[in-house]
């Protein structure tokens, strides 16, 4: 799907406020709005406090870097945990962590013992709480609203954050100017309480799990594998990383813009943040209408240009009104770009991997922001603030050329609704060792004239299998019979093999059925499932003991609690394939 492809009609017709009719979404949105107020007030206090603790540009910019760095370090693990464990419990743990750290930050500031590195440590730990919370909340949105209203819900989340941004920073600037940074930290600590209360009251349905949960490292690798084999997501990640890298300049240097270019104080800083929020709210309110008329790629291009113009205007302006206008342009571009990236990712992946995919997207975006905050701070320190802001704007303008190589899609173009398998293959109890690797082979009869088309179809099928968990995929042809093709792939264990079957989507099934159309045998393609056996262990076992193993087949279609105790049945190896048993 190219950049000119418009959004789906269902999104175009939806009201931007429709998700509010779902009560849990509304409750979480309102609680998050109040929490966002607190977080933005704290960010004003932390940034301004650092200007007095260490006035150099590179250290001031590190406040922004320390806030977003946890996304780059921990977001993927948090996304894997969101897909593997109870998302509500994970969100609660993250908010409680942020509350405790914010309370400690408040206490240390009141005590007058704050240092630059201690402040960076506390802001880093608050960022850790946000990094854990973000993927769990983003992947939970699809649980509380239908998929057709997901773009509107994501836009409303951006709207809520930026409603807080319109007045939160200005209020934060007044609070810091009147009562000091410690008051801003105290207000943020209180703001977590409402969201924690809503999460405690949320009666999230208990998921029925057919298999034991994956380990976090295995879940992380599964997420990375899926994203690496999804061209649409790779394009979004590249564009989001570059945008975050360049756009972080305004975020990191805004306190210095207020102090050095405008010659103002914390109130001026709050007004600039408020102007940024005004632009963000305006773009969030108009995003649904824009997506109805334009493709995602066009929206990202306009958003990038808007932020670039705002950065360049801020670099050369010395008056508050012009700089505030520049911040409005920057805020509009910021929300349009990031919300479009977010929606593109969530609409391009199935539910089983959405937490990890969102986490990888956030890792890329905020990793770029963390690196960019440090780089633009160094540039401002060595070459001046004007140069740093103008150069960032130039990088943003140049980044629009990336659309020719990595277009931003409006969706995956596939039907990502889950498609459970018709049958569940099982292991025969007579098999001595049932914990080995599983190798699957599928035999196809393909006419010589159809071989090139069959190979192209199998290339797409290989991508679908591998991103769902298959490893070492290969396609071979019989040296004595060029019409006999053998597809081969494997899994670490029988449980991993069964797990990937439940990851299939309607789109995956369509890919399999297309590849299967080239098979010309009367019977379906023949499937063999082979499980590795430790020869030494089997040979060492007494023959009498081996004979006592009952060679029976359990035909119960329900998946047993322990899949390793199941038996073999003959089903083919697509996400929802039909039984096979072709003989040649």
Q: Indicate the proportion of strand residues.
A: 5-15%
Biggest pleated-sheet summary: 4 strands, antiparallel
Number of strands: 4
Structural class: mainly alpha
**Span from first to last CA?**
41 Å
Strand order of the largest sheet: 2-3-1-4
Global outline: elongated
- The Cα radius of gyration reads 27 Å
Describe what this molecule looks like in 3D.
This protein has 584 residues and is mainly alpha-helical. It has 2 domains: 9-404, Growth Hormone, Chain: A (Up-down Bundle); 438-565, Alpha-Beta Plaits, CATH 3.30.70. Helices cover 65% and strands 6% of the residues. It contains 19 helices and 4 strands. It has helices spanning 9-13, 23-53, 57-84, 87-111, 116-144, 150-179, 181-201, 216-228, 231-261, 266-293, 296-316, 320-346, 354-383, 385-399, 451-467, 494-501, 506-516, 535-540, 543-547, and strands at 438-445, 471-478, 481-491, 526-531. The chain has a 4-stranded antiparallel β-sheet with strand order 2-3-1-4. A hairpin with a 2-residue loop joins strand 2 and strand 3 (481-491). Helix 6 (150-179) packs antiparallel against helix 7. The radius of gyration is 27 Å and the shape is elongated. Residues 1-14, 544-572 and 575-584 have low confidence and may be disordered.
